[in-house]
Design brief:
This protein is an alpha+beta fold. The chain is built from five helices and twelve strands. Strand 8 (154-155) and strand 9 form a beta hairpin. The protein is elongated and about 95 Å long.
Amino acid sequence: MKKALIKDSVKQIKNTFKRFISILLMAFLGVGFFAGIKATSPDMVYTIDKYYDEQNAYDIQVVSTLGLTNQDLKEIAKIEEVEQIEGTYEKDALVDIDRAEVVVKLLPLKNINAPVLIEGNLPQNVNECAVEKSFLESKNKKIGDFIELKVENSKNDDGEEIQYLKENNLKIVGVVESPLYISSDRGTSTLGAGKVNYFMYISEDNINANDIYTQIYVKMKDSNAYITSSNEYEKKCRKIKK
């Protein structure tokens, strides 16, 4: 019975040899594609994890519509598993280039979420900024050029309106990448067409802010020992958030 089955199978293959080869090649292609995806996925995870570790990317982001204070920083710092915290100011601004307005997200230089310097220098003075490469390419700008920012005023502790930036006319001194923006999406905004087009790093000394922060970024103890987005990492984040 077994010999007859094998003999019949061989006969069928001979009679439909081209079809058999086609199906065999399709099977090989499918297996090869699956094996490639299976091997690529861990490499991608390890690559982004290494990038986040090198740039000291945040583990937890704390936001509030009313703002956050130094007292909030002190309370978060009391949590046993918290290693590093930073209050930061982020604000949208308009840039008028060739009679067209674009929205940029202003980010101060901090230890957490450190940008990657691609070319030039990081801003050190109040009248300097660093932009992403796509901003230079699409707006026909280069390092050394000046841009004028339009920024809404903020309020001091007494409720009085003050200018948000000390200097609105900034010199482009560098090109950077940000761990906060690894995709093409830059988020939404209440300015312009309702979408952030680019991000821009500025010196924190250029901000006339008071002690009210827009975000607090938190780094956990030994967070670099975990793989980003792994079950163990997410479990530890949930514990600290609670």
